[in-house]
Amino acid sequence: MNKSILLCLVFFLLLPYSYSQQEYNFTPITTSSYKGDLISTDDKGNLLIGAKSNLTKLSMDGDFIAHFYPMHQGKITCIDAKDPRRILLFYEEYSYVQFLNQELANAASLSIYSVNSRPEPISLENIHLSYASLVCLDEYNEAYWVYDKNTTDIVLVDQDNQIDFKADALDQIMDFDPDPNFMIMEGNRLFINNPSTGVYIFDENGNFVRVLSLVGLKKIQVIDNLLFYTTSNTLIVHNLLTGEESYNILPIQGFTDWALSQDINILRINFLTKSGVSIYSLDKMIK
């Protein structure tokens, strides 16, 4: 077959997938001038912005709620705020975990009933996890998950900050040295993103379930059975049940970080940029 004809055939075969897979419209809501390195959201739609060692909490409309200034140094490298009553911060450089309550003015331990106005961070070195690189909350228990990059163990730590159990080491599943960059638990599933090989899914007990061959990702979010991730200019929505994907051209580029937020049935995407936060609604298109 003539090469030019073959190229045209490939183009027209791919055309429906390239242009008819748009699933969402992006509608600008508002902007906010608060800047930082990381952005996350809680289950009420509030925004959490990490700027070096500090944390700022905004409403889902970008209005200021509270600041947190720690008594220690170090840069926040993980924020998990799925439970607004106990926000987890992780400072990888010092192997510190910090828990905050919803006001940020007082800080809590992992237990939502323990409040301390001058909190001390939890040192993971005390339980031999000084090489921890990722931390996230357990979704339904007063516990949190830690990824130890030295042993590649996935470790569950209880509310007394003691190791509950260790799941299978990630390198045993992958057969080579992993280098994951993101971890989150949603819907009784633990997701660990390893950019070079894909997204690894574990059950609530740390048992390996399967891997998604989605490579090169920096961050993921999961809502029900939809996994969201971005490229520099596209929001991709991956259906965990069917494997189907939709491709949605982003309204903004050059962002530092992003996070989804949802309040009742309103889905939003929040972009952290050099000038602050830009908030858009994600409106499902009627097909």
The second-level CATH architecture is 6 Propeller
How many angstroms separate the termini? Answer: 36 Å
Tally of separate helices: 2
- What is the ordering of alpha helices and beta strands? HEEEEEEEEEEEEEEEHEEEEEEEEEEE
Describe the biggest sheet? 4 strands, antiparallel
Count of individual beta strands: 26
CATH H level, superfamily name: TolB, C-terminal domain
CATH topology: Neuraminidase
> Which secondary-structure class do the elements indicate?
mainly beta
Strand content: over 45%
User: What does the radius of gyration come to?
Assistant: 20 Å
Given as residue ranges, the uncertain stretches (5+ residues, pLDDT < 50) are 1-20
For the biggest β-sheet, the strand order reads: 1-26-25-24
CATH class (first level) name: Mainly Beta
Q: How many domains make up the coordinates?
A: 1
- Percent in helix: under 10%
Mean pLDDT: 88
